[in-house]
Each structure stands twice: as structure tokens, then as C-alpha cells.
Design brief:
Layout lengths: L9 E6 L23 H7 L28 E4 L11 E5 L6 E2 L6 E6 L9 E6 L4 E6 L3 E9 L4 E10 L5 E8 L8 E6 L2 E6 L5 E5 L6 E3 L4 E3 L2 E5 L4 E10 L6 H9 L3 H20 L9 H16 L1 E2 L9 E2 L11 E2 H11 L4 H12 L11 E2 L18 H12 L2 H21 L11 E2 L4 H7 L13 E5 L2 E4 L1 E2 L1 H20 L3 H21 L1 E2 L4 E2 L1 E3 L5 E2 L8 H4 L5 H11 L34 H13 L3 H14 L11 E4 L6 E5 L2 H11 L3
Parallel strand pairs: 1-13
Antiparallel strand pairs: 1-17, 2-3, 3-4, 5-10, 6-7, 7-8, 8-9, 9-17, 10-16, 11-12, 12-13, 14-15, 18-19, 20-21, 22-24, 23-24, 25-28, 26-27, 28-29, 30-31
Helix pairs in contact: 1-3, 3-4, 4-16, 5-6, 5-7, 5-16, 6-7, 7-8, 7-10, 8-10, 10-11, 14-15, 14-16
């Protein structure tokens, strides 16, 4: 996967001294196994679920996690120590250089005593929620509370409440400045109470606006404001609000600026709290009966927040909202097709609108013949869209899962012709011998892109593959893959559901006949009766491509195996020497000589999408107790899924449970939801 960044618009607005004071959320209670109905309890479940504490040491420092919301292309952390100025780390910019920090703190608040000495703090604490970040600075006389809330996909609000907790009057001076610029190409200019930020790396422009009485002076890389005096009697408090905005050229800054000026801070926070509470409530109330324990509520909250932090609004060439695989890894700042289908299924549990947009995003990059690009980016001057291959056909699955939730026939009507065209593209471009069984391949004739098309890039089944030309711009591997054909079988049944909803009876009849034929072919060609496992085969279907991998249970996920075949596959899945490891259902059997989770990307690690397909496959054939057992083992065994603080990872070491590769991985989070939710 590759990264697509490019266009940045930073803008910071600090306005008004006068939003109403609001009490802090109460501390987290001991969780109960019973779902509480008070909305606040759902938000409390998410408190500190991810650890955002960290101060960047250099522009590409990604040791810490970052908080984002509303699809913003920027994010923040919480400083790990009491600094001279108070504020939030960042912002981290996902709009240039594969993600860089603008500054350790681009907008810091300095509070001085009437003797012009910086106020010293004795204590610094912080909290994070799905709705906002919060931190507190305390000494014997003053308490400073700071909150950071996204009011839109362009703007983050930072509210600072200064309270006199001492017995005497406090005369304070407040001002703002930036810590050193870290990102390349940023330059500052000032006029009255406004700072303008430009970048040589993009054509975006940013702004910082302060209260009207504040004056700003600057250099190319720094600014400092004049001071404002604040007098506080005992128990009196004062609030200061700053808004920080990133806005792309396809949005109106004038419109956003007006919205900021008219913003009510308390209402903005309430909107975010209510939104997150409703989403967490929808998830919590849909938990499988066997996963009601409070620990799984925390797992849900972590998954929900992981998806939130990877959410991006339309910009540049991206016309719909969608999710990055991971903002934390520099090459994953784009949008991938099968990632998108998986994200959409997870999102459908609590955010139908975003789920639909995630699907639509990728179909904006569908060719006339039905082909859908592998991955796409906001700015192709940084990296081109990848049209060398597509990804496994899971889009109809995603659309059906969305349709099951809200019965939006207009959505189905819009997507159906695209899905149908994509489905038959496989048979027209990836069936070398025209026998009704497809192969993975590429559009440019490269072997590496053909392996990418499987989504399981370096899986051992492709070690000896060769590439064959089908026609101009269409190439296949010299092997037929069981997972691809199982996906296509499942897709025919999902298309039947959609065609029935649209009263396309001719299509229903066609899919039904094709599915019946394909089912027989899968059962007969890909199943090894001796091993009790499904394998890829050569084109002729006479030789198996041996090596037990997770593709072997996709036939169970697709409900295409016989009961006897499913029994045999189940036995191998539950064998501790093979697949029932500390983190069960990894990508290849633990007893294989090429099993190498630390060095083999798809040669041993547990990817949670594949683990989910295994669990779902067990359920399809009535092994619900085993499916529950495996789900609990996966969640318990994978480092950091249970409990607070650590991020959900791209994949996991199946023997040790160690989290591997990218942090904050969206499809892992999405499949965790699928594992513990009711269908």
C-alpha cells in the first residue's frame, strides 16, 4: 500500500472569551455486565481507551497515538510533561510528507503571574474520550482545564478554563505563541490579530485568529501575541476558546469561518458527546449475548475509536468520505478496495451513512469494463492510483450488510449495476481457460501485482506462480485460487439478495444457476480428501498447491463446503499444532516449515479479517460453541485488544500474541466488531 498526501490548509482561529462553563465528566465507574441506559455511561466506557500521551521529538515521530474526528486530515496528542506553555501536541498533518508534525505545539497558551513570571504547575493529568481530549494543570492557586473537540471535519476547538482555587485575587497575563516549526515548507505572516500560514509543499493556506484586542508579531517561523490581563477573584473562572482549522480548496473558508464565529462551545461539545454516545450505545446494545462482559465493551470502544481516527472527509480526487487503513503508517494514507468493503461492514453497525460513503468512494474509481482500482489517493502528484490490480470481490457483501441495517433501496439501486459489472469483470478478465473458475492476476502483466490482487501478497501458495496473458491488459496467475472462487460464490448469493430487492428476476435466475455450478466445482476441485483441506490448484485442477493457509476456510465462510468437508476443515482449525494457537486462525499452519510470523507478512501472522472468516465459517456450519471459544481466545491472546491504552494492530504473532506492523489498523478494528456483534 502507498501513501497519498499533498494539500494542506492550516488555520487556527482563536476567538472570544466567553463560552459558558461546563462541569467535567464524572470518573469512570466500575463496569457492570449489564448495559446501562444513562447515555453518559457509554461515553465513560471510552475514557482513556487509547493512550494519546506524547510530545513529538521530530517531524516524523510516530511513537505516540493521535486523536482525530469528523474526518479531519489532522490530529493531536496530549503532551507528556508540563511545558512552559499549555496546549495539545501538534497538530499532526496528514496533508504533506506522508504525515508530519507542524510543531510540538503550534498554539500554546502561556499564563503569567502579575510579576511576569510563568505560572508553575505542580500536577498535570489528562483524559481522552471518543468525543474529545481533556487535560488539567493544577497548583495551589490556579486550575487550568483544557479540552479539544472537533466541531467539523475542518475545525478543532480548544477550550481553556482558568479557575482561581486559592484564597486571594489572581492577576494573570495570558498570551499565545508557537513552539518551533517541524514540518518542512511552512512559513508564517501576521496582520493585526491574524497569523497566515503557507506551505511550499502544498497550495493550502492556514490562518490563526486571536481575539480582536490581541496583536500578533511574527517571523517566518514563529509568532507571539500581545498579552491580555485576566483578574480572577477566589472561585471565579474564565474561559478561552481557540479554533484550529484545516480546510481544503474544495471547501469555503468564509463559510467555515462564519460557523466558527457563531459557534456555541457547550453545544459543540454536547453534539460530539451525544453523537459518540449514540454510536457506542448502538454497538453495545448489539453485542452477541456471549460477549456482554464489560471487557468487551472496552474492546468495542477501542475499535470504534480506531475507525474514528482513520476517518477522512473528501478532498482532492477523493469524492466520498472513507477510512485510511492506518494514519500511523506512512504508506497507508490512501483508500484500498477490499479494506473499504471490510470497513463498511464494521461501520454499518453504528454509522450507516459513513458505511455507504466508504463503498461509494471506491466505485468512483471503477472503469467502464467493471474493474475497480486497488488503491486511490487524494493527491496523485505524490503517488498515483494503483490500477495494476484490483482486490478480492467483497463489495456485494458490504452492500448487503448495509442494506440489512436500513433497507435503503435507493442505495441498492445506485450500487447494484456497479456490483454486477464488477462481478462479471472477473470472469471476462481473470478466467484464463474459460472454465468458470477465476485466477488472481494483474493489468500490467507483473507477477507482483497479481500477488497483490489476492490481498495476501507473499503467501506461500504464490511462491512458484507464473503469469499468463489472457488478453491485452488482462493477465492471470497459472493457478486457480479457492478463496477467490469462494468469494465469487458468496457474491452471487449477495447479488441474489439485491436483485430480489430490485425485482430483477432474470438476474436472480442467472445467479442461482451460476452459483449451483460453481458450488460443485469448488467442492470437487479445491478440496483434498486426504488432508481434509481446501487448496489452490493448477489451471487444470489436477494438482493442489499445498501448504495449509487461511484461504482453506473461506469455503466455510462462503457456505460452499459440504458438511463433511466443513467437519474436516474444522478439525484442523481447532488443532493447537496448526491453527488453534494463542491467537487462533492465523494465515498459515504453525507446523509448516515456512511458518515465520516475524519475517513473513502473510506467512504466519494472524490477520483479524482472516480470523473472522474462520469464526464466521464455524458458525455457518453450527459450531457456535467453538466459534465463541475461538473469538474469546483471539481477543484475549492478541496483545492490547483487551484493556485500555494500546492500539489495535495490523496483525499479531499467533504464538506470542505480540502486535505486529502498523498501529491503529482499521480493518482489524472492523473485524473485531464483526467477531462480537450480532449479525
Amino acid at each position: 500500500m502507498n501513501n497519498k498526501l499533498g494539500y494542506l490548509s492550516i488555520l487556527f482561529l482563536i476567538f472570544c472569551l466567553g463560552c459558558k462553563q461546563e462541569t467535567t465528566l464524572k470518573e469512570s465507574p466500575e463496569f457492570s455486565t449489564v448495559v446501562k441506559e444513562t447515555p453518559e455511561e457509554y461515553l465513560i466506557t471510552s475514557m482513556d481507551i487509547l493512550n494519546y500521551i506524547g510530545t513529538p521529538k521530530h517531524k516524523k515521530d510516530k511513537e505516540m497515538l493521535m486523536f482525530s474526528d469528523q474526518g479531519a486530515w489532522f490530529a493531536y496528542s496530549i503532551p507528556d510533561s508540563i511545558t512552559v506553555g499549555q496546549g495539545f501536541s501538534g497538530p499532526f498533518l496528514m496533508t504533506q510528507q506522508n504525515g508530519v508534525w507542524s510543531s510540538a505545539m503550534l498554539s500554546q497558551l502561556l499564563i503569567q503571574s502579575d510579576k511576569n513570571k510563568p505560572v508553575k504547575w505542580s500536577e498535570h493529568t489528562s483524559k481522552s474520550y471518543a468525543s474529545h481530549l481533556e487535560q488539567q494543570f493544577v497548583n495551589n492557586n490556579i486550575e487550568l482545564t483544557q479540552e479539544l473537540i472537533f466541531s467539523s471535519g475542518h475545525t478543532a476547538i480548544q477550550r481553556s478554563t482558568i479557575q482561581n482555587v486559592g484564597a486571594t485575587t489572581q492577576n494573570l497575563l495570558i498570551s499565545w505563541s508557537n513552539q518551533p516549526i517541524l514540518a518542512d515548507g511552512l512559513s508564517l505572516s501576521a496582520n493585526n490579530n491574524e497569523v497566515t500560514i503557507k506551505s511550499s509543499k502544498t497550495d493550502a493556506i492556514g490562518h490563526i485568529l486571536f481575539p480582536r484586542e490581541i496583536k500578533v508579531t511574527n517571523t517566518d517561523s514563529s509568532y507571539v501575541t500581545s498579552s491580555k490581563r485576566v483578574v480572577l477573584e477566589p472561585n471565579q473562572s474564565k474561559e478561552i476558546v481557540i479554533s484550529q482549522t484545516f480546510i481544503f480548496s474544495n471547501y469555503s473558508w468564509d463559510k467555515e469561518k462564519l460557523a466558527i464565529i457563531e459557534l456555541d462551545c457547550n453545544k459543540a461539545k454536547d453534539v460530539r458527546k451525544n453523537e459518540k454516545n449514540n454510536q457506542l450505545k448502538a454497538l453495545t446494545e448489539n453485542i452477541n449475548i456471549n460477549f456482554k462482559d464489560y471487557r468487551y465493551k472496552e474492546v468495542i470502544a477501542k475499535s470504534h475509536l480506531t475507525l474514528q481516527n482513520n476517518w477522512r472527509i473528501p478532498a482532492g480526487e477523493i469524492k466520498y468520505e472513507g477510512l485510511f487503513p492506518s494514519y500511523h503508517y506512512k504508506w497507508f494514507n490512501g483508500f484500498w478496495s477490499w479494506d473499504s468493503w471490510k470497513h463498511a461492514v464494521g461501520l454499518a453497525f453504528y454509522n450507516i451513512d459513513l458505511a455507504k460513503k466508504q463503498v461509494k468512494l471506491m466505485f468512483e474509481f471503477q472503469d467502464e469494463d467493471g474493474f475497480v482500482a486497488d488503491c486511490v489517493y487524494r493527491d496523485t502528484s505524490i503517488e498515483n492510483h494503483n490500477y495494476r490490480d484490483t482486490k478480492p470481490p467483497l463489495s456485494a457483501w458490504a452492500v448487503v450488510k448495509i442494506f440489512e441495517k436500513d433497507k435503503d433501496i435507493n442505495f441498492v439501486e445506485e450500487l447494484y449495476p456497479k456490483l454486477k459489472k464488477y462481478h462479471y469483470w472477473w470472469y471476462e478478465n481473470r478466467d484464463h481457460d474459460q472454465d468458470g473458475l477465476c485466477e488472481y492476476g494483474s493489468t500490467d502483466g507483473s507477477l507482483v501485482a497479481a500477488k497483490w490482487e489476492s490481498g495476501m501478497d507473499n503467501a506461500i501458495r504464490f511462491d512458484n506462480s507464473k503469469i499468463l496473458k489472457n488478453s491485452e491488459g488482462a493477465y492471470s496467475l497459472n493457478q486457480e485460487s479457492v478463496d477467490l472462487n469462494a468469494y465469487l460464490y458468496a457474491e452471487k448469493h449477495y447479488l441474489i439478495i439485491l436483485a430480489n430487492a430490485l425485482n430483477h428476476t432474470d438476474d436472480v435466475e442467472r445467479y442461482t444457476l451460476e452459483a449451483k455450478k460453481l458450488k460443485s466445482a469448488i467442492q470437487e476441485q479445491f478440496y483434498d480428501t486426504k488432508d481434509g483441506w481446501f487448496y489452490d490448484t493448477n489451471l487444470e485442477g489436477t494438482d493442489f498447491v499445498k501448504g495449509e493457509g487461511s484461504e482453506g476456510w473461506t469455503a466455510l465462510w462462503a457456505n460452499v463446503a459440504t458438511k463433511e468437508q466443513a467437519d474436516a476443515v474444522k478439525n484442523r482449525m481447532m488443532d493447537p499444532n496448526k491453527f488453534y494457537t494463542k491467537v487462533p486462525f492465523q494465515t498459515m499452519s504453525a507446523d509448516h516449515p515456512k511458518f515465520d510470523p516475524l519475517k513473513g507478512y502473510w506467512r504466519g501472522p494472524n490477520w483479524l479479517d482472516q480470523a473472522y472468516f474462520g469464526v464466521r465459517g464455524l458458525r455457518n456450519y453450527g459450531y457456535d460453541n467453538l466459534a465463541d471459544k475461538a473469538t474469546k481466545q483471539i481477543i484475549k491472546g492478541a496483545e492490547g485488544i483487551l484493556g485500555k491504552g494500546k492500539a489495535i494492530r495490523e496483525n499479531y504473532h499467533p504464538i506470542t500474541g505480540e502486535g505486529l506492523h502498523a498501529h491503529n489498523f482499521s480493518w482489524s478494528a472492523s473485524h473485531i466488531l464483526m467477531l462480537i456483534m450480532k449479525d
